[in-house]
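ok trying this again, last paste got cut off
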Amino acid sequence: MAAYFIAQYVVKDPALYAEYQQGAGPTIAAHGGELIVFDIAAETIEGTPPGAQTVILKFEDTAATKKWYESSDYQAVVGKRLEATEGYAIISQTMNIGG
């Protein structure tokens, strides 16, 4: 079942975030991921998100998503995103109806 890494945030340090993007991009494809959405001005219609920037990556399943996230190549750059942005990231499955 496909799984998605979904991040929504505000970029506080554009230069550091650009460094993150350069390093993170190749790790996605290397782990079988696909960039589905990169939107710097997502429109909120309910609730209060941390920011308008939204990124959605698609992986084969939750295990593949976690394998990418926990990989040494991604962990080498993720600190830059965490320092450069304020927001959250989740993993969500295509049809997870419990369990």
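PB: full thing came through this time. Residues 3 and 63 are 9 Å apart (CA to CA).
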